[in-house]
Amino acid sequence: MRRAYRNLAAPVLALVCAAAWPQQAPSLSVPLACETGKTCLIQNYVDHGRGQGARDYRCGFLTYDGHRGIDIRVTDADWVRHGVPVLAAAAGRVRAVRDGMPDISVLIAGAESIAGREAGNSVVIEHGNGWQTQYAHLRRRSVTVLPGDTVERGQVLGLVGLSGNTEFPHLHFEVRHQRRPVDPFVGLEPGAPCGPGKQPLWRREALAALAYIDTGLLDAGISGRVPSVVAGSVDRERAGRFTAASPTVIFWVQIFGARADDLEEVRLLAPDGRIIAEQRGRIGRNLAQWLVYVGRPRGNGSWQDGTYRGEYRLYRGPGEREILSLVREARITGPEQAMSYRSTRP
Asked: Which site among 30, 41, 268, 343 is 20 to 30 Å from 253 CA-CA?
């Protein structure tokens, strides 16, 4: 595995010879080895707000002011620890690399510690005719290429990490033409309002894999303690397993893309069907991610043997259309317990 260090903020000294690479825009593949919609999802898109409030290419709010790329988030913490490969979206030549920054949330490290290095560990690839792609927030010591290397589509560049200006493990993927950001869902020629461009940069199969999802599930479970969020995700170890001796029973759900005035229904049922805890109410504002939970303390004795069931539903719009529905179950059989789940989205 080769590593190199180079200032990614330095100006481009020279572009590759125009004859060496295609003159047209690159045709892009999914730059991450994950299953979109299951083990990863797009948390943020390119901002098209132009000073009038942040909005993504579908006129939604899955972006923030000035965001220049797309953030593909890995939702399975075990996958992140195992290592999720970042892939070259198209063939090209490596212009710059950084691979020495630690994997730590900016909330802990502080913005001043990464000033001028917000992309964290990163790779920039030139594709000819002024086109570049950048792959940011990679894991420390995972980068596999050097400046000047020629790479093929799908070649591994590194692993998803938590370096630079980020609060959760993800890949920030950015496309530039003549140094200006380009939304790969739009390309250089916009299409109809609130839709993709006339010629998106994604290949057909990538565009299908990256279909727009405005709201979805990040994680959910039944735990023995109140959940807390670490690096953007619920820390399941801190939340603890739910057993007969747990001090509390908690059903929790973490989603992305919550909208103002969405109606939530959350309830937790005992093995005999009794409602242990429930909550029904409106979400107050648009939220990139949202954690809700219900539960109660054990009291005297131990929890009843059997299957505990958590149910969650989210409704939207004037007709209160159901857009998200899921169930989580935990079974207690004496001192140990086993968990199972099923999730549905109409």
From this structure: 30
Q: Which of 110, 104, 99 is nearest to 136 (CA)?
A: 99
CB 346 within 8 A of CB 325: yes
Whether the Cβ atoms of residue 41 and residue 197 lie closer than 8 Å to each other: no
- List the domains of the chain with CATH numbers: 18-209 (2.70.70.10), 216-344 (2.60.40.2550)
The CA distance from 219 to 298, in Å, is: 24
Integer Cα distance of 151 and 87 in angstroms: 10
**HSE of 115, CA atoms in CB hemisphere, 13 A:** 2
Query: Do the Cβ atoms of 134 and 122 come closer than 8 Å?
Result: yes
Phi-psi region of 232 (alpha: psi -120 to 50; beta: other; left: phi over 0): left
pLDDT in tens, 194-245: 999 999 999 999 999 999 999 999 999 999 999 998 878 888 888 999 999 9
HEC string for the chain? CCCCCCCCCCCCCCCCCHHHCCCCCCCECCCECCCECCCEEEEECCCCCCCCCCCCCCCCCCCCCCCCCEEEEECCHHHHHHCCEEECCCCEEEEEEECCCCCCCHHHHCHHHHCCCCCCEEEEEEEECCEEEEEEEECCCCCCCCCCCEECCCCEEEEEECCCCCCCCEEEEEEEECCEEECCCCCCCCCCCCCCCCCCCECHHHHHHCCCCCCEEEEEEEECCCCCEECCEECHHHHCCCCCCCCEEEEEEEEEEECCCCEEEEEEECCCCCEEEEEEEECCCCEEEEEEEEEEECCCCCCCCEEEEEEEEEEECCCCEEEEEEEEEEEEECCEEEEEEEEECC
pLDDT surpassing 60 at residue 299: yes
User: Counting beta carbons within 10 angstroms of the beta carbon of residue 263, is it exposed (0 to 12), middle (13 to 18) or buried (19 or more)?
Assistant: middle
